[in-house]
Amino acid sequence: MTDILALRGCRVLRGYLDRSAQETLVDRLRLLLTKAPLFQPVTPRGQPMSVRMSAAGQFGWISDAKGYRYSATHPQGMPWPAIPQQILTLWDALSGVARQPECCLINWYAASARMSLHQDRDESDLTMPVVSISLGDEGLFRIGGTERKGSTESLWLQSGDVLVLEGASRLAYHGVDRIRPGSSTLLPNGGRINLTLRVVT
Ligand code: MD3
Ligand code: FE
User: Fold this and answer.
1) What's the total number of domains in the chain?
2) CATH number at residue 173
3) Residue range 34-79, pLDDT digits in tens
């Protein structure tokens, strides 16, 4: 049984993926990343982001001197690989919507990486939920309300945890303050992977 808790309107499914499901997923991601290698996005203001990224599906999210946007191709020019079936099945079980995700964004955090507080609103239909999967080292996730200035709450996300961002939480400010190196044995070289599934168009 998955332990479910509610945090600022988002559903937190702790340990939704067991160890063997996590290992299978990492194997799929390794193959995928040979076709669409991780890259380091640069903000429009010229700052390299500390998180490295790739994606699967019809769209990935990229950022460079021209701005940030969804793109049908990897920065190296190729289309993104398909979203693995295991991930689509998880979306069908948890999203509560009939549409399929068009982007599986892959974020990779080294020990020193973080993601500053932001909203995700580049998608056309903001009533569609976002589903997030955490793998590897724990990350300190922070979520607030729909205004940047409001109070926030923090939660350590562990390997196998799944979040469903729906309703008010879909437009909540959120970020990752830090990684806890050595907190998981899933990835032999450490680090944290976060997958976010999104409907884009
Ligand atoms: C709340 N990723 O990719 S996952 C992102 O751990 C992102 O890599 C973080 O924020 C990470 O945009 C947090 C949880 C999450 C994902 C998407 C959300 C929370 C969200 C979208 C809207 C609201
Ligand atoms: Fe986000």
Assistant:
1) 1
2) 2.60.120.590
3) 999 999 999 999 999 999 999 999 999 999 999 999 999 999 999 9
